[in-house]
Design goal:
homodimer, Rossmann fold, 12 strands, elongated, DNA-binding, 336 residues, alpha/beta, four-stranded parallel beta sheet, six-stranded parallel beta sheet, 15% strand, 2 domains
Chain lengths: 336, 336
DNA sequence: TACATTGATAATAACGTTTTCATAGCGAGC
DNA sequence: GCTCGCTATGAAAACGTTATTATCAATGTA
């Protein structure tokens, strides 16, 4: 009476059985048009909202989806989350978010816990092992962003193309010896990018100078500064923008000015890449789009009546030429 | 048999009734120690997990909490979310996150929708009206961050103190005519800070020059540049760090260098404030701590058997002297 | 000895849906 | 005209918990 309005109240108001009310919402085509109208208007009049818990109890579905990110304070992820979220909202899914703090073991455990609360998951840049990932995949629909594991649907970025564009850019600017500051070897995309760098530098007949692996943070970039200075190169490619910004910052401490003394290119195009001074030359990866696409896939998987889901998608990257890369100082023929 | 293990399976295994199993988890003190042990071990052996939906159905509680933020890509919020989340996790609450896209009307609607899925809410920098806020408060426990409404529990920052510190700092550096670049008038904390600026500048016998209101974004800060230049001041206080960074960036376009030609101070101490070059003088507000505290309050409200929740908390800010503020060029007595 | 009192457990009734399964009505085909 | 099949609906049985009430033994009290 006093409590929230139930399906029974609507049934009474529309003079039908509760079953018919339920059908009206779940399988509208199964109920006569005029009855349907009657039920709908009664429901609207009473402001009826189905009780999720009761639905869940019987269907076994929660109606929620989950997002897992390694570190929300890393500027890469909020955009991804936003992309997922806005698409999820369109589709009517509330979103459970979890931040694993970059801890692979914790990540796996949190996914297990979260798994019971959601009908599907989007895992961003998952740190856990392939095996763990595959075992979670057994449990419920899951799509990956920025990580590939055979047999698991994923949205990735065309990093090879992005790196290729940067290499071409540096070659066009006349650089020959090029340093690469890698991210952590444990990171999937770090390994992918490292591979692409080696491949494309070689293909362009340029010399790769490995500077080493560092944490994918501002401080990680900073700590690469000394080795960069010792590498005797005119240009450095850095695993990501945050590190590139850190590197540039520390380089300034050494009195080395970018781009005058050294060309630096980043990766990701985080918001602050454009805001830095000088603005960072980088490769844009469409993060929000990736999130939205992943959510669309997930939805397809979850509502899959039919057979296979679509193949993994690889999103195009875009090279962004800004202020931290310049033509190598003119020497020889041109300079004479 | 095949499906997930239910309370009934545990009851059978422990040779007690389902009711006793339930009690073992809900009110352990109500069941005999030896029985309890038997139930617990049976539950562990079978890897029993209570079905949330069934629990929800009868208790009317979801066990989830919700977070609402205006814009996740604003670097202020991820830290807050992280603070809430990590505390929530300790307390055993999964977290539903929603990003309102800075839209007050949407915000209110989303809170309504989200409200049905959670037992309590943390609203960060809520944009909606006091009335809407109060009406949502009727529905379920709710705590605010960075917004005050009489009668609603909140975690805020001691902005007056933060502003006072900045004013003192500028005075100590010898500045007299000081510009203030305000945030949007519709924002609660913008109004609060504006008020504090006026008060403390006056108290310090300094001259306030209002530069105008701008969007609280990098571009917002940029668009303030012309007016700042026309204000004929030696120092500018800016509503927040993102704007301050934008302002400095645009100033550079005008050939005005910070801090040599102009002192700029921000607010918030976002990550990039320290990373910028020169690093931004600002006021740190403990965002992660605020999130955690808000979550603790919320938990107290939700589990409140007793009477009133604790009073709203105001967190201390910390002045951070970095590179964008310098002593005003020496003139007069000292310079002769 | 009889009778409250307490403590531990069991039985059972919700909670609000969805989903068989059954049934009534009704037009079509033979 | 009788059955067949199809559509629209209702009745009732789940789903897995928690909360309420009842039962029963043990203990304390008069």
């Amino acid at each position: 009476m006093s409590g929230p309005v139930t399906i029974r109240d609507v049934a009474r108001a529309a003079d039908v059985s509760p079953a018919t009310v339920s059908r009206t919402f779940v399988r509208p085509e199964k109920v006569d048009a005029v009855t349907r109208e009657r039920v709908l208007s009664a429901a609207a009049r009473l402001d009826y909202r189905p009780n999720r818990a009761a639905q869940s109890l019987i269907t076994g579905l929660t109606g929620n989806i989950g997002i897992v990110v390694p570190d929300l304070t890393n500027p890469f992820f909020p955009s991804v989350v936003r992309g997922i979220q806005s698409r999820a909202e369109e589709l009517g899914y509330p979103v459970l978010l979890v931040d694993t703090g970059e801890d692979a073991a914790r990540e796996s455990e949190l996914v297990t816990r979260l798994g019971r609360q959601v009908d599907g998951l989007v895992l961003c840049a998952a740190r856990m092992s392939d095996e763990d990932l595959l075992s979670h995949r057994q449990q419920r629909p899951l799509v990956l962003i920025n990580r590939e594991v055979p047999g698991v649907p994923a949205v990735t970025f065309d990093n090879a193309a992005g790196i290729a564009q940067e290499v071409m850019h540096l070659k066009a600017l006349g650089h020959v010896r090029i340093g690469y500051v890698a991210g952590p070897g444990t990171s999937y995309s770090s390994r992918v990018r490292q591979g692409a760098v080696t491949t494309h530098l070689a293909a362009a007949a340029l010399t790769e100078v490995a500077v080493g692996s560092f944490a994918p943070s501002f401080d990680g970039g900073r700590s690469a500064a000394e080795k960069v200075l010792l590498a005797n190169v005119t240009a450095v490619m850095v695993y990501n923008d945050v590190m590139a910004l850190g590197l540039i910052n520390q380089l300034a401490q050494y009195g080395v000015s970018v781009p005058n003394d050294l060309t630096v290119v980043g990766y990701d195009d985080i918001e602050f890449a454009a805001m830095a001074n000088p603005a960072l030359t980088t490769v844009r990866v469409p993060r929000e789009e990736a999130g939205a696409l992943a959510m669309s896939y997930l939805n397809a998987l979850m509502t899959a009546t039919g057979p296979a889901p679509e193949p993994p998608a690889q999103l195009k990257t875009e090279f962004i030429f800004r202020g931290t890369s310049v033509r190598v100082p003119l020497t020889g023929a041109l300079a004479e």
